[in-house]
Amino acid sequence: MTETILLTLKLAILTTVILLLIGTPLAWWLARNRTWYKEIVNALVALPLVLPPTVIGFYLLLAMSPAHGPGKWLYDTFGLTLPFTFEGLVIGSVIYSLPFVVQPVRNSFEALGKLPLEAAATLRASPLDRFLTVAIPLARPGFLTGAVLGFAHTVGEFGVVLMIGGNLPGETKVLSISIYDHVESLEWGQAHLLSGGMLVGAFAVILLVTLIEKRWGRVS
Q1: CA distance 178 to 159
Q2: Distance between CA 156 and CA 175 in Å, rounded?
Q3: Rounded to an integer, what is the distance from CA 168 to the centroid of its chain?
Q4: Domains of the chain (ranges plus CATH)?
Q5: Fewer CB in 10 Å around end: N or C, the chain?
């Protein structure tokens, strides 16, 4: 059980870090850009919110397959095989949890308005300086919310994880898969223990996000 918990935490932490690195510039572009195709990009980012996880997992499995597509190129060029590996789980988790990080960060960027950035521009701050020293600090609640939601969503994954990673102990067997195994084996005590822990964690996540938003509302 300890190995499964540590693997799940490792996956969630690594996924959250990658999501913040990728999602921050993407959220900034979506918040500030006025091009006609912006909402098309936004719709693509938000797809995991409405698509069944098994559908996402199925197409990711095809894309990662060494038989064709990007997976074939990775295998032929670097000898990498992503299906049923931890690395494949990370990629799937990043794609599946992307909107849970991008949307809160985007909302925070949009809530800034133009005045703080214009004030920084009058002080001869470069666009990069304005982004790093003004936009990011002021959007901190969005980053906190996005990080919490991205982490929690990764911990609770099942469909995508099952399709891409299977059930390999020490490699791809995370908490959600472990619970499924215990239920399938009629090991109700273990299933109750893991499920109860995730239930408490989910409640803590909702409470934390609510407190962050409440504090942000008072500050703004």
Answers
A1: 13
A2: 8
A3: 22
A4: 2-113+141-219 (1.10.3720.10)
A5: C
**What HEC string does the chain produce?**
CHHHHHHHHHHHHHHHHHHHHHHHHHHHHHHHCCCCCHHHHHHHHHHHHCCCHHHHHHHHHHHHCCCCHHHHHHHHHHCCCCCCCHHHHHHHHHHHHHHHHHHHHHHHHHHHCCHHHHHHHHCCCCHHHHHHHHHHHHCHHHHHHHHHHHHHHHHCCCHHHHHHHCCCCCCCCCHHHHHHHHHHCCCHHHHHHHHHHHHHHHHHHHHHHHHHHHHHHHHC
pTM to 2 decimal places: 0.86
Please list, residue by residue across 50-77, b when 16 or more beta carbons sit within 10 angstroms of its beta carbon and e when fewer do: eeebeebbeebbebbbbeeeebeeebee
